[in-house]
Amino acid sequence: MSDLITLNKVNKTYRRGREQVHALDGVDLTIQQGEFVAVVGPSGSGKSTLLNIVGAMDQANTGKVTIANQDVTALNEKGLTHLRADTIGFVFQQFFLQPTLTARENVLLPTLFTRQKHLESRADELLARVGLAERANHLPDELSGGEMQRVAIARALINQPKILLADEPTGNLDSRNAEAIYGLLDELHDEGLTIIVVTHSEELAMRAERRIHLLDGCISDDKAQGKTRVA
Amino acid sequence: MNLLTLSLKNLQRRKLRTGLSMAGVAIATAALFSLLSFNTGFDRALQEEMANSGIHMMASTEGCPMEAASLALHGGEIPKFLDARRLPEIGDMPGIRTAAGMLIFSLIEDEGKAIFFYGVGDNYRDLKPHWKIRGEWFTGPDSIILGAEAARVEKREVGDKVYFPGIDAEFTVSGIVERTGSEDDGFFFLPLDTAQKVFKKQGKLTAVGISLANVEEFEQVKGKIETLPDVYVVTKDQIMQQISSLTGSSKTLMAAVLVVALVVSFLGVINTVLMSVFEMLREFGYMRCIGASPGHIFRIVLFETLLLCLAGGVIGAIFGMAFASVTDQWLHNLLPYAPAGRFILFDPLIIAASILFAALAGVLAGIIPGLKAAHASPMEAVRNV
Ligand SMILES: Nc1ncnc2c1ncn2[C@@H]1O[C@H](COP(=O)(O)OP(=O)(O)O)[C@@H](O)[C@H]1O
Ligand SMILES: [Mg+2]
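# adenosine-5'-diphosphate complex -> structure
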């Protein structure tokens, strides 16, 4: 397997008034194609910051970030946009579905921003995949939280990304709905997708094959773990 | 689905706000359409009226075209009178087809409203070839002919009697001039001799309307008439110029009001779209996260304002056309002098220009909000608050 993501001495500081907050403090990290990584740690430890940098949404202050053989720190706005559009699928805690669009249209939304067209049948496949074939023409208002997050996952997959990033994807869901998301992520991992998920849920973290523990912007622990399958 | 769909759905999301700013654009476009139509329509109507009326020049004791114009076309008195002996002298000159004497008087009625009497000879008809008279021309010295509007206000029909307490005189309506759309509609026409008697101006005239047999002899005839004592000639062109300048200030005023309307609705659109952009920064942020470029976001917002203004423009043009006759009537009443005939006619070019202008304004109005939205960073989506 090849290195898909590498972070080299990555620093990220935020200014809060006069104070400098070290959200990430000299992070070194390599993630290989096909890995399923859980990022855990207390609130404010820098988990989201790490994910945003890996997702090319935020830029490191110093250090080097490479994603799919591209030096992210050297990319301009256009390059970053292409990277986000083609290589990365992002799932948010708050789902962020476009309220004016149906589930199906939401899944197709990223295709408006790429050259890939005519992905309607793929959208339908993905909706069926996440168990929402019947809800394709419903607006987000008419869906439950769990359903909305499944639509968001289908949307993240429409452009066939190499990497799926999820920041607390089940943070707003009850346990039954969360369970469906866990299952889905498991399946996607089995199919070879690289997945990085930030979570407070032990149940979700347990399913990853690698667990990275962040503390005050540093990786305090990084270990492989046996994948525990729920029968 | 494409970016345009997204813009359209964003507009539909805030129906009231969209509707209100669309109404603003529609009103501004309707005003623009009306003014553009009016500007071409007024001159066309004036040309037509001048061509219809056979008057080539007016002779009076007043050399000022301003006075002559308002007197000839607006109805008005001037305190100086022409000796009626000049009338046959002018009429007998070579090159003259018609020389029609007129005596114009106004009377203030009880309600403070001025009514205008035109004492005219039989050959006055030659100067008004387009008049359609219901009933008959004067049948005797106590005949009166009413303009259509005058007849409506006085509630008189052909054959009725009409009494004017101000001059203690009663006349019988012999005819009513069908609506011309010009000032003539409001006048009361009396036989010239009767008018001279009633207003105690025997042997006097206010002016002589002159039509030439051959327009090429214009300068010679004009010069000859002006050799007569106390007679000045004002030409049709001078009168038209005068009317144009009389109308000019009204046009300027209307244009100023229009500019204000356009600016207000333009700012209104920017404000509306800017407001929704601020509300949608987070949405634009997550669109950036899922692959949208700043250009995509810019286009979504630009399409939004373009659609808003285009729809407003089309609605405005439709309303402008639908209310053309109302606007026409209003303009006829508003202007110091309005020629007969419609100002606002169906003109595809003016309709297209109005809508195009609205669309162009839409594109311009979209730039500031569009840039604001395009600057939304992906982090906008995940930023807490
Ligand atoms: N935009 C920001 N401005 C200022 N400080 C920030 C910003 N984003 C994050 N931080 C700070 O950086 C640190 C790490 O934040 P974050 O990565 O969101 O942590 P986590 O996701 O683990 O809760 C926290 O102290 C947080 O307050
Ligand atoms: Mg976080």
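# post-check
The first strand of chain B starts at residue 57 and ends at 60.
Chain B touches chain A through 25 residues (CB under 8 Å).
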